């Protein structure tokens, strides 16, 4: 008999059930209203999770096709990560990361240096993805000697002020617009299906930004996601990556790959950058790195990282929880799984999911109602109005319907037209079949509904 982690959805109440709705009322009374969207139909409150299953406060079992924001690629609560965390927590839960460092920090940094494709890698550890982006932007500023930054429209790099300055969505930026860094140029996202003229225009826009920089100074940093995740699973097209790399070399730019979402196996390789033709100087890692524990890293080869001065006792970038020993031990266990073939597992399962979805949605794809795209275990299904583009909020509608069937997904894309899947490895054959069938049925129903 299958155990929790490998179950199909089992709903024992309507979704959300009475316990989730009661928790929603309690939450409304104590959390800033900006944080959690609450309605009669949303959300469900999680009580426990293993593998690809989540159990909510009402006892409903869900199939989680999100790995909770892409973090739990190893599945929820992987036993090796939990055991490593537990062992370390009993010995030394918290330490003094940049003063009297825990042994666990050294071990994790050695494991990271071994796994990233840089000679002589150096890292700065942090707690959240946004913080890793902050460190990368500071490092690139120092290493390039130039203040300007190039980023892409649709890019999501986090919401702390530096990261938000390169994140492009207007709604996130508007409340603090005048506080953000100046000197950031957002280029339109280069479409993979762009024809010859659109390609030439995209490359000309890149050249204009480099040759005619903002008044605040010349561009020294390029920051991007190799596959834009929250923007609806959009890989950087190869032709644009080639053009960019040529200019990165010619202008002596520092290329920062934000691989918080895509890195460490999610897309079928240690770094997704290499799959799309990018050769970054600095890489930001998070999410999968901790196996479910909050930890992140900014990694670069020593000639780049050595743009920072040697510490004379006052670290110029650090934080209280840098090198947190229990988190480092968890991350070391997660990296052991990356070394043991996690990217290959993700690639194989991703191909299975993409093939199944394309087969079940073939008629809608042919009619231009749906586009299925993905790399490894990062998959986006965009619902479209033929001739007019993505159908706003259709992904939100589909994700909501899937939730009521016990399948957790996330909407994505600027207008919410995409259903995003970032499931864990280790789905059972039944779970794969169920996921493909449920997602295809709901997407087809929404796509065929008159807008
Ligand atoms: C590509 C990318 N960069 C940065 C971040 C920010 O990470 P965090 O939310 O841990 O600060 C995210 C979060 O989703 C992300 O997807």
Please tag this protein with its features.
Aspartate Aminotransferase, domain 2; single chain; alpha/beta; seven-stranded mixed sheet; binds pyridoxal-5'-phosphate; 17% strand
What does the model show?
With about 450 residues, the chain is an alpha/beta fold. The protein has a domain at about 120-315: Type I PLP-dependent aspartate aminotransferase-like (Major domain) (Aspartate Aminotransferase, domain 2), CATH 3.40.640. Helix content is about 40%, strand content about 15%. It has 16 helices and 18 strands. The strands form 4 sheets. It has a 7-stranded mixed sheet, with helices on both faces. Strands 13, 14, 15, 17 and 18 form a 5-stranded antiparallel sheet that branches. It has a 4-stranded mixed sheet with strand order 1-2-3-16. Helix 3 runs antiparallel to helix 12 (about 325-340). The protein is globular and about 60 Å long. The model has no long low-confidence stretch (mean pLDDT about 95). The structure holds pyridoxal-5'-phosphate. Pyridoxal-5'-phosphate binds near residues 258 and 286.
């Amino acid at each position: 008999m299958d155990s929790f982690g490998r179950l199909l959805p089992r709903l024992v109440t309507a979704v959300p059930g009475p316990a989730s709705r009661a928790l929603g009322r309690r939450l409304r009374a104590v959390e800033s209203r900006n944080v959690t969207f609450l309605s009669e139909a949303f959300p469900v409150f999680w009580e426990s999770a293993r593998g690809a299953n989540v159990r909510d406060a009402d006892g409903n079992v869900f199939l989680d096709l999100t790995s909770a924001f892409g973090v739990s690629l190893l599945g929820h609560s992987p036993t090796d990560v939990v055991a490593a965390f537990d062992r370390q927590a009993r010995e030394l839960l918290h330490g003094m990361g940049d003063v009297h460092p825990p042994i666990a920090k050294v071990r994790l940094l050695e494991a990271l240096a071994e796994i990233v494709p840089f000679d002589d890698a150096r890292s700065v550890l942090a707690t959240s993805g946004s913080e890793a982006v902050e460190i990368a932007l500071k490092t690139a500023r120092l290493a390039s000697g130039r203040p300007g930054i190039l980023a892409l429209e649709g890019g999501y790099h986090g919401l702390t002020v530096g990261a938000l300055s390169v994140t492009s969505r207007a709604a996130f930026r508007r409340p603090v617009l005048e506080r953000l860094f100046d000197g950031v140029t957002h280029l339109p996202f280069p479409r993979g299906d762009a024809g010859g003229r659109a390609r030439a225009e995209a490359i000309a826009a890149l050249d204009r930004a480099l040759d005619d920089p903002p008044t605040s100074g010349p561009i020294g940093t390029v920051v991007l996601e190799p596959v834009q995740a929250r923007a609806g699973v959009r890989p950087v097209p190869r032709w644009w990556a080639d053009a960019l790399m040529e200019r990165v070399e010619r202008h002596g730019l520092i290329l920062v790959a934000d691989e918080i979402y895509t890195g460490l196996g999610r897309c079928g390789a240690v770094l997704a950058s290499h799959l799309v033709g990018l050769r970054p100087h600095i890489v930001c890692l998070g999410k999968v790195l901790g196996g479910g524990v909050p930890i992140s890293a900014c990694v670069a080869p020593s000639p780049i990282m050595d743009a920072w001065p040697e510490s004379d006792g006052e670290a110029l970038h650090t934080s209280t929880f840098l090198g947190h020993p229990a988190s480092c031990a968890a991350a070391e266990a997660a990296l052991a799984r990356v070394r043991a073939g996690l990217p290959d597992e993700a690639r194989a399962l991703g191909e299975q999911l993409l093939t199944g979805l394309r087969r079940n949605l073939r008629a809608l794809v042919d009619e231009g109602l749906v586009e299925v795209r993905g790399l490894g275990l990062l998959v986006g299904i965009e619902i479209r109005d033929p001739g007019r583009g993505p159908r706003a909020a259709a992904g939100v509608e589909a994700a909501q319907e899937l939730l009521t069937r016990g399948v957790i997904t996330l909407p994505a894309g600027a207008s919410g037209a995409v259903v995003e899947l970032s499931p864990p490895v280790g789905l059972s054959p039944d779970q794969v079949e169920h996921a493909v069938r449920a997602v295809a049925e709901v997407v087809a129903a929404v796509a065929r509904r008159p807008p």
